[in-house]
């Protein structure tokens, strides 16, 4: 699994979220299997987005499309994006422990 991680400052979360939800690049059609939106607990004007893919080529293709969109909105909705494509090398999930007492 490959993750396209995007992070950047925003001016207004609600305006950014509306633009994200409008999905101008067609995430599902572009091969996004799942996404996660995160915000630092100490900075409501910053977002981190993880987009999950089956291949790096699909992640790279979507990134190219996103860069076109950024050219239209940078400075108004978001600023200075940082991007990485990451490979998942290990996942370990832990089940919550039950209180047996």
Detailed description of the structure:
- Helices cover about 30% and strands about 25% of the residues.
- By secondary structure, it is α+β, with helices and mostly antiparallel strands.
- It has a single domain (about 1-85), classed as Alpha-Beta Plaits.
Salient structural properties:
single chain, 101 residues, alpha+beta, Alpha-Beta Plaits, four-stranded antiparallel β-sheet, 2 helices, 28% helix, globular
Summarize the structure.
With 101 residues, this protein is of the alpha+beta class. It is 28% helix and 27% strand.
**Number of strand segments:** 4
- The largest beta-sheet arranges its strands as 2-3-1-4
Structural category is alpha+beta
Mean pLDDT: 92
Give the count of helical stretches: 2
Gyration radius, to the nearest Å?
16 Å
- Major β-sheet annotation: 4 strands, antiparallel
What's the number of structural domains?
A: 1
